[in-house]
TrEMBL record:
GO terms for cellular component: plasma membrane. It is a multi-pass membrane protein. The keyword Transmembrane helix applies. It is found in: Cell membrane. This is Vang-like protein. It comes from Oncorhynchus kisutch (Coho salmon). Keywords: Cell membrane, Membrane, Transmembrane, Transmembrane helix. The chain crosses the membrane at residues 63-90, 102-122, 134-156. It holds the Pfam family Strabismus. Belongs to the Vang family. Its main location: membrane.
Amino acid sequence: QALFHVPSQVKECRPREKDDNWGETTTAVTGTSELSLSQEEVVGLWKVPGDGQRQGSQLYTPLILGICVGLVVLATPLAFLVLPAVLWPARLQACGSACEGLFLSVSCKLLILLLAIWAIFLRQASASLPRVCVYRALLATLTLLLTLSYWLFYGVRILDSQDEDYQGIVQFAVSLVDSQLFVHYLAIVLLEIRQIQPCYSLCVIRSTDGETSCYNLGQLSIQRAALSLLEFYYRDFPLHNPALLSASKHRAAKHLAGLKVYSVDGPGNPAEPAEGSGGLAVGGKSRTMISAAARHKNTSHNELYYEEADYDRRVCKHRARLVVAVEEAFMHVRRMHQKEQKVSPGDVMDVREAASAIFPTMARALQKYLRTTRRQHCHSMDSIQRHLAFCLTHNMSPKAFLEAYLSPGPTLQYGQERWMADQWTLVSEAAVTSGLKEGMVFSLRCLDFSLVVTVKSIPYIRMTEEYVDPKSHKFTLCLQSETSV
């Protein structure tokens, strides 16, 4: 198993199970009692000491190595030009305008190479991968070997003999810069262009709720494909909500809790009763009660149907109340804005103050709707007020304000404290540096769920052409004078 981290620190937040009337029957206390833990302390329980230093080293080590290799690449041609002028200046032959043109060429090429290295290699990594990228390691090794070979040739043929042909030395430095530009072109082909054309279709399934999405990727290694899928996941998948999964578990537990089967021989038999709780004794009326239990089991789909129908009814009711409350609050803000235009500028209310003033009028309806849809843990009161102030600042409609709460959005829409994991485990039977193949399966695991990925090759599409003669589909309409036309 291999580990890699997403760039930002993410905290886990699990909602507690609450009844439907928790807002009316309980009192919320913002302090921390002696028998409770804050959210930061709960998240800290899962952290390993020294994990922050390890993440920092994994994040900045590739950048530091890239800077070192870039400095060596850029400093070597300059050293080739400066060393002869410093060590044996009196013996060098003057080359005039030819050397000046070569100097200009080296300067322009080094500037282009500097910008190209900055654009490709000196970017801060967005994640730490479990293994080193094969192509990056290959390009770095090739660059170092090329520079070392030039240094060996330079030391043997120029430094030892103290070559007097300065124009030849300058041309030697120009050839090194040209070779480095070709290596950088090879890096662009391997790292950027090669993966552009889609070759595989990857199906991502979330293990808990079955949320599925498919993406087309090119020739990538498993770890690079996993990183791209995680970026797509945070952008496209709705936020993982464990509260929505608890309803089916409670329904199954309630159904199983209604039966308890004893031994046929009666209470005198020392045999242990079967698991369960409730009251079903297998005796003289065993057949009747077993058949009744079977009928009860067969009607469980009716219970599910009426339960979902009741849930949809309650959601629609609370949604309508929320829409009306928000529209009335925004209408009140518009009226207050029209009145404030007539008063002095010093008496105008701030946007945050206006948001805090109208928030209580919609808070109860919004709280009931979020509690009914089991998304109350995704939105805090501060985040709702900030979103309300944002909508008022940009003169948005009530529908624009409600869109963030009526439908679950992608993971990145919520704050980082609502994300479920900052560490993912890549599980694969093949090496994570190997390329994608047909039929390959790997998974990305975090604390509460996993993403199962299956790889399918994009089929080869054969397209043929069929020529249609423009004269083949022409016809003549003959009309008689006796017709009504």
